[in-house]
Specification:
The two termini are 24 Å apart. 32% of the residues are buried. Helices cover 37% and strands 22% of the residues. By secondary structure, the chain is of the alpha/beta class.
Length: 205
């Protein structure tokens, strides 16, 4: 890891069933293995019913006093559902980075016609809201080896790790230690897809 990395503030967001807590667990083990102090606050709410789930994730070389991140202090928003991404745009620093899935869980009020959806594309709003936005469309990257809709968390983990220049061997070891044995192969392939997509994005810049 970069020895000059003194720490970052990250919001991890999505809806119930997308593996936000697993993502947070793997990332926390990675940072602890590298000697960082951590403070994490998970807000689950009605996550089991498809409601919003968020994790305030702070790592630092110095003691972290509060687990909560103030609006305007977020370095990275990592989100697996784009409506949840919109909720945290105001939290980003001016040079903050967004990693998001274009997946959208339409609310029941919109589905039943009680409320109108936003007239503009959520993806378009997100893409102009920060200097760096990386959006992954799960419909464009379907795999026979795993269900990307159920493993977007690990795909995004691979993307993030490649973006940060992290040692993949360390992250892969932690993934193997964190998921049931029967799911290891699919998770490793999902992680590999994330690193590939990240590399392709940088090559296109």
């Amino acid at each position: 890891m970069n020895s000059q990395d003194t720490g970052k503030n990250i919001i991890i967001a999505g809806v119930g069933g997308q593996g936000i807590l697993l993502f947070s667990t793997i990332l926390s083990n990675f940072y602890m293995d590298h000697g960082y102090e951590l403070k994490i606050s998970d807000v689950i709410g009605l996550g089991q019913r498809g409601g919003g789930v968020e994790s305030h994730f702070r790592y630092s070389r110095k003691p972290v006093l509060s687990p909560f991140i103030k609006a305007g202090d977020v370095d990275y928003v990592i989100s697996f559902e784009q409506t949840e991404t919109l909720r945290f745009l105001h939290c980003l620093k001016d040079d903050g980075v967004i990693f998001t899935s274009t997946y959208e869980l339409t609310s029941s009020t919109v589905n039943t016609g009680l409320q109108k959806d936003m007239p503009e594309s959520k993806t378009a709003i997100i893409e102009r809201s920060a200097k760096k936005v990386f959006a992954i469309d799960p419909t464009e990257h379907k795999s026979l080896d795993f269900d990307i809709s159920k493993m977007m968390n690990i795909v995004m983990l691979g993307f993030y790790a490649e973006f940060r220049g992290y040692a993949h061997d360390d992250m892969l070891r932690i993934i193997k230690e964190s998921v049931p044995k029967r799911f290891i192969e699919g998770n490793l392939k999902a992680y590999e897809l994330g690193t590939t997509l990240s590399g392709a994005d940088f090559a296109a810049e």
